[in-house]
Backbone:
């Protein structure tokens, strides 16, 4: 199956360095640097586990295990760049064997973590499974259940996202389907999941989207569906895939009708899958700037920020303006959309892949912080696709953009304040959430 990794017989690394993907893209091949980092992390984890008197499996579940992996990854990246890596993980060398030091690295600020893009799937397990299914290529499908479809239900979601990570709240976002009422993540499934999370974790922890699929049926029928969803369910926003089915754009007649409908329904907030498409034209974020300029009352979230697997990320240049995340940057520039206005850049799957390439990660975070603004970059993990998101959280908490990259490219320093905005405050602003009410959850250990 596509996207599956081989789990080590004694556990898995807390920061995943194995080839992995979602059903939306082929696994990104591991670079020689990441392969060496993976080898070094396993070796150092075994050595550090012996030093602190733990089994390797138990050690990998601690903050020291996460620190050990990031020390290996950062060290290998720095070796590859001759000591001049543009992005790195600020982890003291003794964090691999001292729990207090490791805990301090990953504690971060007092703000909670809010995930702007999460998913689950509820299959009818009484129906026989034939071959692959949507989700069979996700790492989560290897959870150990007798039927891999059982790996994606709400109980698994609550365990991975809320029990095995410090995530305090999340937005459950739709997956491709002909309409909001169809498939394994229908609006009914999301609504029930919200009730389940409220009962298990607490109220206000899970927000849900309504799917908009305006070219899978007559446009007026799709707009009527939006009205039904808004009336019957408490959705906090909309989700759209402009590249699914007959493609459409946010600034064509279909897109304008959808955006106007979000305003009429009093929910002018839409997340659009932009990127992870093989650079397909309709999934490009090139329409984000013009649409945001035309509809200033609508809040736009560019899911994945235009990132494309296999596209090397670097500094923005005119010659690379039509590639990867640069497409979002150039779209906003050309349309005259100022930073910190009505366009948000989301990091689901983008950060999961880029954290393995610290220089590319520094470029992407730096470009987005400049283009959309430090108040508009939002945290997302595409959980439950990759299992618990805690490793992604740990990697961001410890990540820095070097002074050299700040000076050369005009990127801001990745301070604790900015990380707090990315992990919580910006998502809270987008959805009108009260951080004090949500409260920070502890990091599992």
Residues:
């Amino acid at each position: 199956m596509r996207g599956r990794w081989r789990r080590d017989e004694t556990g898995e690394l807390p920061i995943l360095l194995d080839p992995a993907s979602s059903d939306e893209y082929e696994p990104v091949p591991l670079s020689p640097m990441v392969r060496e980092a993976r080898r070094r992390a396993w070796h150092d984890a075994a050595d550090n586990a012996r030093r602190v008197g733990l089994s390797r499996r138990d050690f990998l579940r601690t903050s020291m295990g996460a620190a050990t992996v990031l020390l290996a990854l950062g060290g290998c990246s720095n070796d590859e760049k001759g000591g001049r890596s543009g992005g790195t993980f600020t982890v003291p060398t003794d964090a691999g064997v001292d729990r207090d030091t490791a805990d301090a690295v990953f504690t971060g600020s007092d703000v909670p973590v809010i995930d702007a893009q999460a998913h689950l799937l509820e299959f009818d397990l009484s129906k026989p499974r034939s071959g692959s299914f949507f989700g069979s290529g996700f790492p989560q499908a290897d959870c150990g259940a007798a039927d891999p479809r059982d790996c994606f239900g709400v109980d698994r979601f609550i365990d991975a996202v809320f029990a095995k990570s410090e995530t305090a709240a999340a937005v459950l976002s739709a997956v491709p389907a002909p309409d909001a009422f169809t498939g394994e993540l229908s609006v009914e499934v999301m609504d029930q999941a919200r009730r389940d999370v409220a009962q298990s974790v607490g109220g206000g922890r899970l927000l849900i989207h309504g799917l908009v699929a305006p070219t899978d049926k007559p446009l007026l029928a799709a707009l009527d569906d939006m009205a039904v969803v808004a009336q019957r369910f408490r959705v906090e926003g909309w989700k759209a895939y402009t590249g699914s089915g007959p493609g459409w754009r946010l600034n064509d007649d279909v897109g304008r009708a959808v955006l106007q409908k979000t305003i009429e329904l009093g929910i002018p907030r839409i997340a659009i899958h932009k990127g992870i498409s093989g650079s397909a034209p309709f999934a490009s974020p090139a329409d984000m700037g013009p649409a945001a300029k035309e509809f200033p009352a609508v809040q736009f979230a560019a899911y994945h920020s235009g990132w494309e697997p296999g596209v090397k990320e670097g500094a923005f240049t005119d010659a690379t303006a039509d590639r990867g995340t640069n497409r979002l940057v150039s779209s906003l520039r050309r349309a005259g959309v100022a930073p910190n206005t009505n366009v948000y850049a989301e990091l689901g799957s983008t950060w999961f892949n880029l954290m393995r390439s610290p220089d590319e990660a520094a470029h992407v975070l730096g470009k987005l912080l400049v283009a959309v603004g430090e108040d508009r970059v939002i945290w997302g993990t595409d959980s439950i696709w990759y299992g618990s998101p805690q490793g992604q959280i740990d990697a961001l908490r410890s990540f820095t953009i070097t002074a050299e990259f700040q000076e050369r490219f005009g990127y801001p320093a990745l301070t604790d304040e900015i990380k707090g905005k990315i992990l919580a405050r910006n998502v809270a602003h987008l959805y009108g959430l009260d951080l004090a009410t949500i409260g920070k959850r502890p990091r599992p250990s």
Summary: DSSP finds 16 helices and ten strands in the chain. Confidence is low (pLDDT under 50) at residues 1-10. The radius of gyration is 21 Å. The first strand starts at residue 87 and ends at 89.
